[in-house]
């Protein structure tokens, strides 16, 4: 075999080996979240399962192309999260990124998604900046935000007599934003904020923070944190005896944390949520299917449900836009179509990227009220989406002025 022929054969082999990577024509979505830290049980593998269920329920294809789901752990580190997003966008043909608990990472990925003309759909992210000053034509904020939760609970608790507040706050963008929104609602409703303290993500010992809360003279302790931080801090507060003369308010007290906290400690606590598994036959059926597929057998929370619903609507938009490669066009299609799915019902996406749907004021059941492992909450009130989320005119999103 002469050298020229061998050289040509090597080139042909290399070309054939590379061909599938370039020829592969799929719609590729990435689930980027915490799979090993304080938010792992609140999004983690559950969000990946939810995305795969959505793809299957949609039929596995969009714009005539197969849909693929990939996932990665951002470890709550902005450099790692943005590095994964860059690799996905530049080297692995990912068209859209979903979820992203941790607002600092979400804001960075939102910016990169606009730069690369991809799509970012936040379900785990909370910061209201995503639909405010940092909004982009490539971003949709789906499930909740700090305004809806902080304002809604702040107002509700003050109306119930909890007028003197002290905040224990996670020291990053999400926590700061959540405290700000709740504090403004407390003051606007006639309450007052007597102080606050900030803690690092993943704190194990809250003793010094709780002592400051006790000494402040407040009758409400607001926990402006999330995930395991909320459960750990509220559990230690109960052990310190704060429940005797303080109302404990977990501003992002997720359903998945309640078994660890225990209904004895959590009973009577109120939370805001746009989804609960026991709302209707559709949510109950989804929860049962979800629990069968997740290793922990847990029922889905609002953020995991948000991944499912947003993937469904995204795929509808890919069909409408005729493909997934122009992220801005896909998001525009998402905004043009009303939303309608089994978990959130009917809704819509505003110009600023805020997805609008009802929220529910839910109350944690007493131990004797609960009839099964995930029978944890009951609906106290329903709040229209237009009343729960910040008005578009107040957000300072440049897209609303176009």
UniProtKB/TrEMBL annotation:
Biological classification of the source: Bacteria, Pseudomonadati, Pseudomonadota, Alphaproteobacteria, Hyphomicrobiales
Protein name as it appears in the record: Branched-chain amino acid transport system substrate-binding protein
Signal sequence segment: 1-23
Species: Bradyrhizobium stylosanthis
PANTHER family, per the entry: LEUCINE-SPECIFIC-BINDING PROTEIN, PERIPLASMIC BINDING PROTEIN OF ABC TRANSPORTER FOR NATURAL AMINO ACIDS
UniProt cross-references to Gene3D superfamilies, sorted A to Z: 3.40.50.2300
Family, per entry: Belongs to the leucine-binding protein family.
GO BP terms, alphabetized: amino acid transport
CDD domains in the cross-refs: PBP1_SBP-like
